[in-house]
Amino acid sequence: MDEAFLKNHKELNVKEDELKAILSQKNKTQGSQFDIMLAYKNIEISEVKLRIATSERNALEYILSHAGDFNDPKLVSELNATNKIIDDTRSKLIINNKEIIKIKNNVQDLLSKRQKENLNFWDFVFYSIGISTTTTFGDLVANSRLIRMLVCIQLLLSILVLANVTQNFLSKNKNSL
After folding, report:
1. CA 10/CA 51 separation, integer angstroms
2. Which terminus has fewer CB within 10 Å in the chain: N or C?
3. Which residues are CB-contacts of 4 (< 8 A; sequence separation ≥ 6)?
4. What pLDDT was estimated at residue 158?
């Protein structure tokens, strides 16, 4: 066996191990993100399998082109089997690419729906508390320059109020001692 053949098989083993690792994260990863990672890993595996099958086909084509030298009907059947594997792998690649496109479209639809959601009073209370405590950045996003400036002012005011409350608390505790 040649070096490229062994390298491809080692790469296939690594990719299959990575796929197992992704599958073990199924319940820990967000659904659409998991589907995308799974689809990409399946494409990578299919591409490696395609390289392996192509190199096997090339070797078998060489042997077949020299069939007079070897005169082995078993080689012809092996070549046909390898060509079938190549065709199956190509079909899987096409299916995986279609799945990735479908998943990307679903994610895009979800993102556009999320952006169109109407926010209510409690969302703004949540956002204000999150800004004041700097704990919820990214849950809601200020989407205009004016809103971002107001959020900055609110954050600075929150810091001043917190500093004032802390100072009053410490001065009361100091006076009571």
Report:
1. 12
2. C
3. 55
4. 85
